[in-house]
Amino acid sequence: MPTGFFPEGIAIGNGPTAYITSLANGDVYRLNLVTGAGRVLTPGPGTGAVGIAFDACGRLFVAGGQAGTAWVINPATGRVVTTYRLGAEGSSFVNDFVFTRDAAWITDSSTPVLYKLPLGRRGALPSQADVVRIPLGGDIAFESGFNANGIAQTPDGKALLVVQTNSGLLFPRRPPHRQRQESRPRRRQPDLRRRDSPRRKNPLRGAEHDQYRRRGPAQRGRQRGPYHRASNRPALRHPDHHRALR
Length: 246
Description:
With about 250 residues, the protein is mainly beta.
């Protein structure tokens, strides 16, 4: 690595390849673990970069430390896909990542909050307006010095574990669940047994059909019109009918 690089975070990709952040200027260095050759993949913004991690879609997330930002990198090209403003520059220290099924969670070593970047369908990246800041309360108390640092998910996926550097303690945190949408009132299904049911009535059948249904069998045979049925009277035949059959 270059002189004065001050390596901090590391993530292992394919190849095998390692991606290393610089605490000095925020560069991301790509290193071939077989040959030892490497180069700066993404030049930093001039402020230090801390944690680095891959998400399920193969994108690199980098924590911006004192800059209060986090950015996403395409590991194949080194292009910065997007940058998020998480905390105030100078008063925050964006540190480390962990990924759950639907979000990226980020610690801040100077401010008692967790940052949440909700991931959309098929890992779609959120917008700046979607960034969520969740206060860290409970047993963890921020003091002077370096506070929340590393973060990980429990094996059952029900909680996050946050380590506090200056106290040497580990704190579990349950991520807030999405609020369930209020169930819509179920539409009342029509009773098909009722004669006035909207699904029982056929718009093509009017009063004539209702009258036809109320008639007896004898009267139905004499009905004329669209509901005419065969009459009981014998059909008229041609005088030469029997002669034609011979």
